[in-house]
């Protein structure tokens, strides 16, 4: 137990920045210098390398009954989630992924869609942690405050969101996940900027993803998720996925958690916009002083006149 | 359109099929199993067989029929974007029907030859291509266990090259999506619904045990047809 705590602390200290969404929110060109420095660290056999932990749900395994059975949690967390952790640690040992934060491993192994072997395990660990925390005993009910305002704005009503979410969860064919995400309005090109960023442009959206894929790879900010792999509901609901979805929304979802995730996402977005603006200000070519025109026109006065006269 | 909202689910199904038949549109129905639900125990539980057949396969058929009817409509109206939009529903559900129809024939109770290795040309081809039955099984089990999420693992014959191949497909994609000349001999469903109630997360145990009820007679017949 002590060993585990030590490695957790070590990984927390060394990867504090890397594990924050701040880091992951930066465009790849800004991320790479950090990752390259980490990658050149040599693996010393016998040294404690930070491994990924199996994080327990924030409640006892029986606490979601009768809506999600203890048996389901025992298998889903105790076997499936645990296997992803054990397998990932085995996979990354001694590689450059060893010691990286979970989100960095996900980003690196997603490899722009050309998925590398570690991705399935890493992303599934992240997804399951996010899923346990999306639920609570005596969950359900309705969201409130700013979350509800944005839901009304972007889905028309709470029922509008529920219908969209139900549909995504039902129509995700095969294995996968349904998500509510906070989507920043930004262009796909790394050096293009939204000239007038406004909170109005950022939207709540429902998306679905197959197998282990999650919205981090699309640079969205996840707020809520539902696991629709069959193992998530088969013991309690057999083939009746729609009943499972309804039960989740009615009895299990923790809207408080969703609200605090939304708050955190808005802070991250605002901070990253500020950073981008600062970077742009530094690089702004329009701030070149008049004296610098020599650089462009040369020191020969005659050349400058020729250029200017050229109509 | 209004008529549909008045009738119940059951009669709606009957009404749909009636309408489809008037149009000359073929509807699909759930094929019967050649054995009882419990006849494959202990390799596959009766509980799983019943759910798998009566719920999962039936749902694919119901949704396939629905998608075909909508496609027929769209084609008649010249609605190209709807026709294209329906393709994924057709692949999922039609594929599910195709794959499961093969699967039920791939299985047989032990007292009816389930698990008995093939003699004749298929047995010889397996030995020639894989070295032995054990090696074939080991390879299929490895590939089946490695399927991420939902899918199938297949032993197939390439009817052009006259060669045995092992392939996997994702979700309900039929084998032909991996090659137009591939003919399925044995398909093993590795969706979690195929084994979860009995084997839980231990897919490798399911794969180890299912060979006890694999119907090699059917596989041999298909093989002989493609490689006479």
From TrEMBL, chain B:
Q: Which UniProt keywords apply?
A: Manganese, Metal-binding, Mitochondrion, Oxidoreductase
* Enzymatic reactions: 2 superoxide + 2 H(+) = H2O2 + O2
Could you tell me the EC number(s) of this protein?
A: 1.15.1.1
What this protein is called in its record is: Superoxide dismutase
Q: What class of enzyme is it?
A: oxidoreductase
Whose protein is this, by species? Cynara cardunculus var. scolymus (Globe artichoke)
| Entry function | Destroys superoxide anion radicals which are normally produced within the cells and which are toxic to biological systems.
Give every Manganese/iron superoxide dismutase N-terminal domain span.
27-108
């Amino acid at each position: 137990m002590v060993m585990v705590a030590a490695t957790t602390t070590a990984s927390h200290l060394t990867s504090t920045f890397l594990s924050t969404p701040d880091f992951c929110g930066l465009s790849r060109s800004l991320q790479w210098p950090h990752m390259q420095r980490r990658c050149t660290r040599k693996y010393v056999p016998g040294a404690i390398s930070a491994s990924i932990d199996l994080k327990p749900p924030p409640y006892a395994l029986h606490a979601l009954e009768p809506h999600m059975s203890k048996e389901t949690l025992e298998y889903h967390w105790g076997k499936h989630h645990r296997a992803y952790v054990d397998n990932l640690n085995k996979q990354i040992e001694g590689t450059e992924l060893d010691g990286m934060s979970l989100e960095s491993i996900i980003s690196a192994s997603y490899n722009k869609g050309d998925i590398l072997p570690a991705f399935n395990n890493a992303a599934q660990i992240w997804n399951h942690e996010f899923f346990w925390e999306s639920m609570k005993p005596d969950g359900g009910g309705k969201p409130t405050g700013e979350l509800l305002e944005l839901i009304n704005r972007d889905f028309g009503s709470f029922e509008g969101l529920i219908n969209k979410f139900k549909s995504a969860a039902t129509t995700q064919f095969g294995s996968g996940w349904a998500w509510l995400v906070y989507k920043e309005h930004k262009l796909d090109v790394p050096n293009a900027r939204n000239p007038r960023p406004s909170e109005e442009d950022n939207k709540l959206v429902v998306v679905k993803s197959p197998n282990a894929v999650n919205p981090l790879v699309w640079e969205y900010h996840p707020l809520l998720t539902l696991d629709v792999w069959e193992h998530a509901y088969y013991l309690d609901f057999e083939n009746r996925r729609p009943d499972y979805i309804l039960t989740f929304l009615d009895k299990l979802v923790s809207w408080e958690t969703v609200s605090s995730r939304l708050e955190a996402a808005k802070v991250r977005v605002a901070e990253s916009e500020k950073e981008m603006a600062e970077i742009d200000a530094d690089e702004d070519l329009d701030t070149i002083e008049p004296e610098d025109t020599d650089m462009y026109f040369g020191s020969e006065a005659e050349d400058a006149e020729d250029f200017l006269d050229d109509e | 359109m209004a008529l549909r909202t008045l009738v119940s689910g059951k009669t709606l199904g009957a009404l749909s099929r009636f309408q489809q038949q008037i149009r000359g549109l073929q509807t699909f129905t759930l094929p019967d199993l050649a054995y009882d639900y419990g006849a494959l125990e202990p390799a596959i539980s009766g509980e799983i067989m019943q759910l798998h057949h009566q719920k999962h396969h039936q749902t694919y058929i119901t949704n396939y029929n629905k998608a075909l009817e909508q496609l027929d409509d769209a084609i008649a109206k010249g609605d190209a974007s709807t026709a294209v939009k329906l393709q994924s529903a057709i692949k999922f559900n039609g594929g599910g029907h195709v794959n499961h129809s093969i699967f039920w024939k791939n299985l047989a109770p032990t007292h009816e030859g389930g698990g008995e290795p093939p003699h004749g040309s298929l047995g010889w081809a397996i030995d020639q291509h894989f070295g032995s039955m054990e090696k074939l099984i080991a390879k299929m089990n490895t590939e089946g266990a490695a399927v991420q999420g939902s899918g199938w693992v297949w032993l197939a014959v390439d009817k052009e090259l006259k060669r045995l191949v092992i392939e996997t497909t994702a979700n309900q994609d039929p084998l032909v999506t991996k090659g137009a000349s591939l003919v399925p001999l044995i398909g093993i469903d590795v969706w979690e619904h195929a084994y979860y109630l009995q084997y839980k997360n231990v897919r490798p145990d399911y794969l180890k045990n299912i060979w006890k009820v694999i119907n090699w007679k059917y596989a041999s017949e298909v093989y002989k047809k493609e490689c006479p």
